[in-house]
Design a protein that fits this description.
Structural class of chain B: mainly alpha
Strand content of chain A: under 5%
Number of strands of chain A: 0
Number of helices of chain B: 6
Helix content of chain B: over 70%
Shape of chain B: flat
Distance between the termini of chain B: 49 Å
GO cellular component, one term (chain A): cytoplasm
Oligomer: heterodimer
Shape of chain A: globular
Largest sheet of chain A: none
Number of domains of chain B: 2
Protein name (chain A): N-terminal acetyltransferase A complex auxiliary subunit NAA15
Largest sheet of chain B: none
GO molecular function, one term (chain A): transferase activity
Pfam family, one (chain A): NatA_aux_su
Number of strands of chain B: 0
Helix content of chain A: over 70%
Keywords (chain A): Repeat, TPR repeat, Transferase
Distance between the termini of chain A: 72 Å
Structural class of chain A: mainly alpha
Largest interface: A-B, 52 and 46 residues
Radius of gyration of chain A: 34 Å
Chain lengths: ~950, ~110
């Protein structure tokens, strides 16, 4: 290691213009900072400053160290660094430190500006170049990254990592050939010295596999395979090597060898579904080739036959493996399917494996007729167990079971287990458990409920039965009773985290966030961190989403906002988290995983949790924007105060509500009362939190900073900081449009937001995009959007907006409107609405099309009435008719979710009290157990 | 942040340990012998890959299109109009206009179906 290079590497530690003793101290201070010995570093900085008070670089470094000592020092730190910068503008150290400070604040733009300034002063500074490269890859400025890495390699070609990172830069720029060339050159330099051993075996192995990845991704399969085989002894990741080889062989269409490779892999792990799928693919492809060569179609086996053949053969080789038997079920039908299912489920039933139903979920979803077969099979088990009192399942009788439905009772040949009472009870339990889930999946909720209640009489302490009972009740809308069931299950095993969390989740569905938080708190870290903050720190998405939705249902907008914003922050953190890996992975040579992480991060916001939060935020802000101005002001300025007031005066209100309840049988007061009582328990809790936060510990000991969830826990400040609700909705709608443009829901929301912002072309674009998503032009979302666009073009209230548009814009918009008229053959929005309504009524009277669409149409039409009086006059009666007249019979009625969604957003429909009551009445008739419409249990049984 | 002060219980100790983990590492470098050979092969690589990159650039059809489009001039108020009414950023609006020879109607219309 040359002395000259050493100086350069620690370029940041220049300590220029200092006496030699202080210069040395400066260098060691920099080192202390890097070793996170901040307090020591601070002392050293003060020591230097005592001698040379105006030393810019030391001032800047002190600022950096100071900011690392605590977030509360931030603004002071900026002042210090800026002071340092003023004292020594020509110092790259000061600029570098300035950039580091911004980087710590995630302000990458300012940070890279500062870095570039520093590089202007010292263009070959390794440390700054390296930091700049990290920023560039974090911001996905791959071109900049490549040129920075090139510079680094030119400055210091004798550092191994610089070569690797340069190759990586080429790969990220989709330049695989150059990446391979860089690696080749690098390897070339290794060959002519003995330093080849200087690399650790693991690193050499990863490097070899990384090179294979490059070759494979650039579709150089021949070279990729060759490279693999040449480096077999170097690679320590044997599994990865074998997988890579099998994959390469398959791509090279060397099917025999590929098959052998996948069989080797399967021998290692017979349950790996990817291996089975790949192997089956090979079989299918080879069969196709074979058939086309023979020119005889009759010889060809169907794909399913091939799958089944393969699965059967493998089940013989690996009799204990389940995946083959499970896969075969997807490709068989009728008696064959039943026979196979029978063999498989027996194992599970005798052993009492609760997850049996999960195995069939995809079959219930994709192949419903087989669900019927399975139901028949289990019915026959149940009947046999009922009548025979032997603890064994009946022998298989094929599809006879399906029709016989229980009459199959013969004990001949049945394997006689120990005929013990307990065993019989066990078997009955698991058969019933499956059947309950079966009926739920088929939508036969009452039957499921009856079955589970009967089963619970036999085995009252079965946690599984209680859970599934809760599920049925939740599905039919009796969430309170569902929580009671879950709570009973929870109490049977208080140490079970799953039960506890599941129970909390159900409580939130029942709008009891207070209960949920109480339960969650049983399992979060002990100490002074409140459960909500603990869940926030664990970045628990479901908790934030469920509690946010519950607050929203209760109309506690600000609190809901806080929870949804939390999700947004989690994802910002997920993205931020990759920063550490840019440096670490290259150093550790885990390049394959690193590239995978980068790709994952590029798409992390596709995650359904993020989407759900964004959708909720758009709706939340649109709802706020919809309120009349005075209410809006109230919600902005004092919504939360009002809520808090409600809480402190909770007892009084509670009493008031109780009296009301006694007087009136109104369903609606029920809801209010619940809210208040919930709010009351919320207050007690809040008081606790305050006292914890208030009890400041003595200085010097570890003072915990209050977390994000603890400061402004009710979201008051958060909501207050929002300037314009529509603009805020726009911000989140843009996120949706960016990450999930192919979701219909996204385009519907973008459309809504655009019209509120008077951006007619953006709305038209959303409509057009929705058109490409929907398979049918009669999809209800499309129809509603088209009606709305037609209305925009004709409504008086839109005239001033449209006439203010530039001619080009209004022409293009009119084109779209004409297009709609042409496609649908209607001349006005009202006509289209009537047409859609008629079709809907026809459909609902017999075609078996759900009434959900009808309600959605009603909702859309009513929403348009709010800002358009002419429209309200013409369309309102029709819309109300659609809302309140639907068939009574169960099969074609709307689903609970639609009815509930509409009811919870009823303020946007501006219904009269009578209509509202009629709607609730209708819904209650259809969903007699639904809490939201006043049915089912009033209270949770604790 | 990392306090060296009091530590109660294992968890705190573990947290403290975690806080002490740093990114700091000594760089591993090649010895002087190899330096020369590395320098040589790097020079060779840059020479050839620079040439290859240059040839790629001139050949690429995208680059060609870019060049032609680049020469085209679009009125700034048109760019502003597209940006405002379809909420695009400036480069995207400018490129779309250029692709349609500066025709605002055609640009807007085509952008609706994108």
């Amino acid at each position: 290691m040359g002395v000259k290079d050493k100086d350069k590497a620690d370029g940041s530690a220049s300590g220029s213009a200092l006496p030699s003793k202080e210069a040395a101290l400066f260098r060691s201070m920099v080192k202390m900072y890097e070793m996170k010995q901040y307090k020591k570093a601070l002392k050293a900085a003060d020591q230097i400053l005592r001698k040379v008070p105006a030393h810019g670089e030391t001032l800047a470094m002190k600022g950096l160290v100071w900011s690392s000592l605590g977030p509360e020092n931030k603004s002071e730190a900026y002042d210090m660094v800026r002071a340092g910068l003023r004292a020594d503008l020509r110092s790259h150290v000061c600029w570098h430190v300035y950039g580091l400070l911004y980087r710590a604040d995630r302000d990458y733009k300012e940070a890279s500006k500062a870095y570039l300034q520093a590089l202007r002063i010292d263009k070959d500074n390794m440390q700054i170049l390296r930091d700049l490269a990290l920023l560039q890859v974090q911001c996905r400025d791959f071109e900049g990254f490549e040129s920075t890495r090139r510079k680094l390699l030119t400055v210091k070609p004798n550092q191994n990592a610089n070569w690797i990172a340069f190759a990586l830069a080429h790969q990220l720029n989709e330049n695989h050939a150059d990446a391979v060339q860089v690696l080749n050159t690098y390897e070339g330099t290794l060959k002519d010295t003995s330093s080849q051993e200087s690399m650790f075996p693991y690193e050499a192995s990863e490097l070899a596999m990384y090179k294979h990845m490059l070759l494979f991704e650039s579709k150089e399969y021949e070279k990729a395979l060759q490279h693999l085989e040449q480096n077999e002894d170097k690679v320590v990741d044997k599994l990865g090597w074998t997988e890579a080889r099998a994959q390469s062989l398959a791509m090279l269409e060397r099917y025999d060898e590929a098959e052998a490779a996948y069989r080797t892999l399967l021998h290692r792990n017979p349950e790996n579904k990817t291996y089975i799928a790949r192997l089956a693919d090979i079989m299918v492809t080879r069969n196709r080739i074979h058939a086309s060569q023979a020119g005889n179609e009759a010889v060809t086996k169907s794909e399913s036959e091939l799958y089944v053949e393969l699965c059967d053969a493998l089940s013989v080789t690996y009799p204990e493996a389940l995946s083959f038997r499970r896969l075969a079920l997807e490709h068989t039908d009728g008696d064959d399917f039943l026979r196979r299912a029978d063999v498989l489920v027996r194992r599970f039933l005798y052993k009492g494996v609760p997850s049996l139903f999960s195995m069939f979920k995809s079959i219930y979803r994709d192949q419903p007729h087989k669900a019927q077969l399975l139901g028949g099979l289990f019915e026959s088990y149940a009947a046999h167990l009922n009548s025979n009192s032997t603890a064994s399942l009946p022998p298989f009788k094929g599809s006879a079971y399906v029709d016989a439905n229980g009459s199959a009772n013969s004990s001949d040949g049945a394997k006689e287990d120990n005929v013990s009472e307990a065993k019989l009870q066990d078997l009955t339990l698991w058969v019933d458990y499956f059947l309950v889930q079966h009926y739920v999946a088929l939508g036969q909720h009452e039957r499921a409920l009856q079955l589970v209640n009967d089963a619970l009489l036999r085995t009252p302490s079965s946690i599984e039965l209680l859970l599934v009972k809760g599920r049925v009740l939740k599905v039919v809308g009796d969430v309170n009773a569902a929580v009671s069931a879950l709570n009973a299950a929870r109490k049977l095993d208080l140490a079970d985290r799953y039960l506890n969390h599941k129970c909390a989740k159900y409580a939130m569905r029942a709008n009891r966030v207070d209960l949920a938080e109480q339960w969650i708190g049983l399992f979060t870290r002990e100490g002074d961190i409140p459960p909500v903050q603990a869940m926030y720190e664990m970045q628990c998405l479901w908790f934030e989403l469920e509690s946010g939705a519950a607050f929203l249902r209760r109309g506690l907008t600000a609190r809901a906002l806080k929870r949804f914003i939390a999700v947004d922050r989690h994802f910002a953190d997920f993205i931020e988290d990759q920063f550490d890996f840019h440096n670490y992975c290259v150093r550790k040579m885990t390049l394959r995983s690193y590239v995978q992480v980068l790709r994952l991060e590029d798409h992390i916001k596709d995650h359904h949790g993020y989407m759900a939060a964004m959708r909720a935020l758009v709706r939340l802000f649109l709802r706020l924007a919809d309120q009349p101005l005075e209410e809006q002001l109230k919600s902005k300025m004092s919504l939360m105060e009002a809520e808090l007031e409600k809480m402190t005066a909770a007892d009084r209100k509670k009493a008031l509500a109780k009296r009301k309840k006694a007087e009136a049988k109104e369903k609606t007061t029920e809801k209010d009362k619940e809210d208040v009582s919930k709010a009351a328990s919320g207050t007690g809790k809040k008081g606790d939190e305050d006292s914890v936060a208030g009890g400041k510990k003595k200085p010097g000991s570890a003072v915990r900073q209050p977390g994000w969830m603890e400061t402004d826990p009710d979201g008051v400040e958060l909501l207050r900081s929002v300037g314009d609700f529509v603009e805020e909705a726009h911000k989140y709608a843009n996120e949706l449009d960016r990450w999930a443009p192919r979701e219909l829901e996204t385009q519907v929301l973008v459309f809504d937001v655009a019209l509120r912002r008077k951006k007619v072309l953006v709305a038209a674009r959303a409509y057009k995009r929705a058109q490409t998503i929907c398979r049918s032009s009669e999809a209800l979302e499309l129809v509603c959007m088209a009606i709305h666009l037609l209305r925009v073009s004709e409504a008086a209230s839109w005239k001033p907006v449209l006439s203010a548009l530039p001619a080009e814009v209004s022409d293009v918009f009119q084109n779209v409107v004409e297009e709609i008229r042409g496609q649908t053959g209607v001349s006005s929005a009202l006509e289209y609405a009537q047409k859609a309504a008629t079709r809907q009524t026809k459909a609902s009277s017999g075609e078996g099309i759900s009434v959900d669409d009808q309600l959605m149409l009603a909702r859309a039409l009513l929403k348009m009435c709010r800002t358009d009086d002419d429209w309200a006059r013409d369309a309102r009666p029709m819309a109300v008719g659609l809302l309140l007249e639907w068939p009574k019979d169960g099969a074609s009625g709307p689903c609970l979710r639609t009815c509930e969604e509409l009811y919870l957003n009823e303020q946007e429909l501006a219904l009269g009290a009578d209509d509202k009551q009629r709607y609730v009445q209708l819904c209650l008739e259809r969903f007699p157990r639904a809490n939201v419409f006043g049915g089912g249990d009033k209270e949770i049984v604790m | 942040m990392g306090e060296d002060g009091e530590k109660k219980g294992e968890r705190q100790a573990a947290t403290a340990d975690l806080d002490r983990v740093t990114d700091y590492v000594e760089d591993r470098e090649l010895d002087a012998d190899r330096f020369a050979s590395v320098q040589k092969s790097m020079d060779a690589m840059f020479g050839s890959s620079a040439a290859a990159a240059a040839s790629r650039k001139s050949k690429g059809s995208k680059a060609q299109e870019g060049k032609e489009l680049h020469a085209l001039k679009v009125a700034p108020e048109h760019i502003k109009l597209v940006m405002e009414h379809l909420e695009l950023d400036e480069p995207a609006a400018e490129l779309a206009l250029k692709r349609h020879g500066g025709d605002v109607r055609a640009t807007l219309h085509s952008l609706l179906s994108m």
